[in-house]
Structure of SET domain-containing protein 4:
Amino acid sequence: MGRTQRKRRHKNLLNFYSCNNEKDLILLNSWLKKNGVRYNKKLVLAVFSDTGRGVLTKKKIMAGEELMNLPLNLTINVTSLLMDVVFCSIFLENKIPCLLKYNYKVSFQSLMAFYLVYLKSQGNECKWYIYLESLPKVYTVPYFLPIEIKKHIDDEILDVITKQTNIIEHSFHIFDEILKNTLCNTVQNFKSYYSISHYEWAYFTVNTRCVYMDLTKVIDLQNINNSILSLINDNTKISLCPYLDMINHSPSARNETKLMINKEVGVMPVTKIDESIFSDVRFSIYTKNNFDPYTQVFICYGDSHNLKLITEYGFYLPSNDIDFVLFQFDKINIFLNAVSIKLSNDQLAFINNHGLNKDLYIDLRGLSFNFYGLLMVIKYYYDKNVDISRLIYSAAICSNDRVLIEFIKPMVNDRLVNIQAALSKLSNFSKCFTLENCTNLMCQYVKILEKFIKC
Ligand SMILES: C[S@@+](CC[C@H](N)C(=O)[O-])C[C@H]1O[C@@H](n2cnc3c(N)ncnc32)[C@H](O)[C@@H]1O
C-alpha cells in the first residue's frame, strides 16, 4: 500500500467503526446468508460518524457492479401478505364485510405497516424475527416531536406532519375495527399487541426503508376483488429488503434494480401464488457509481430536498441548494387582499388553467416559474400593451422584473420574520437530533428568503 493510499485509508477510518460486535447485526448477517442473500464480498456494515449505520466497501467498487441480490421470498412484499393465510383470515373471516366496507380506504403502505405489527407481535416465533430485531427502535422524523415543539416549527414541516397524522390515525382505526371484529381465533397475541405506538413505528419503518419493486411481471394484480388488496387505493410497488435497506442515501448516487427471473414462472394470478415460485425470482441492485476503498456506499432514494428528507426519512443534508420555501396560493391571496388587490374571475380562471396556483416557491435562484407567472397575471393582466400568455412564457428566459420582485417583498419579509421568531422560540427547548433537523431547515429557509430580499 502506497503512502497516499495509507493516508486516505487512515482518514476514512476515522469516519466510521465496524459493527462486527453488534449482536443483532451478526445474527442478521448469518440469517441472511442462510436464506440465500448474495452480497458483494467487498461490503460490510459499519457505523459512520455523519450518517449512522450504513454499508462500507473494503475495496474499490466500479460503476456497473452489483451490490447485492436476494431471493424474492427474503423480502417483505405484496405476495408475503397475500400468502400469509392467518393474516388474510383476519379480514376474510370477519363479523363485518370489511373488504366491502373499507374498499379503497387505505394505502398499501398502511397495510404493510399493519402486517409488520402482526409479524412483530409473534416475537421469536416469526420467520422475520431476526430481521425485525435489527430494525431501528425509534425514528427521527418530526412526526414524533412533542406537541409543544410542533407548535413552533415551520408550516411546511407541520403540513407534512398533519397529513401523516391523518393517514396514520385513519388507517389505524380501520385496522383496529377489523381486528376487533375478526372471527379468526389465532390472533389473540396480535390483538393485545396492536397499539398506536406499535403501528406508528411500523408505519415509519415502511416509510424510511421500503424500496420500489414492481412485481407485475410475476403476479397478476388485476382480479383482486376477493383479496385483501381490495382495501387499498394505490399500488403495491414497495417492498422491505433486508440488508439492502442498510444502505444510506446520497443525492449524487445512481443505481438500478431489476428482477431476475430464472425459470419461466409466467404471470401468476393473485389466488395461485405460493412461496416456492419466488425462490426462483431474485431482486438485484446495481450501482452506477465508483466507490473508493473504505468509503461508504450510497444509493439514491429519490427526491433530495430537505423537507422531504427530514419529514419522511428523519435526516438533513447540509448545503443542499435544491431547498425551497413554498408559498401557498391561499396565503398569497390573503396578502393581495391586505394590499387591496382582488383578483377578478377572469384572472382566477387564467391562473387555474395555467396551473399558476401550484409550485409557488422561492429558492436560492429566486422566484419559481409559476410564482413569477402568477405575479405577472396579478400585475399585467389588464395592461392593454401586454399579451399576458406570451409574457408568461418569456418568464422562462427572464424573471427579474423589479416591479414584481419589489411588489412581493413585503410578503416574503413577513414570512422571514415569522420563521426567525419561531427559531427564537425553538432555541428555548433542549436540543435533540430531530429538532435540530427542523431548525437547520428553517435556517436554510431564512438564508433563501434573506437572499431574495437583498437582491
Ligand atoms: C434505508 S435506511 C438506511 C439504514 C439506516 N441508517 C439504519 O441504521 O438502519 C434509511 C435511514 O437511514 C438514515 N439515513 C439514510 N441516508 C442518510 C444520510 N445521508 N444521512 C443521515 N442519515 C441517513 C435515515 O435515518 C433514514 O431514515
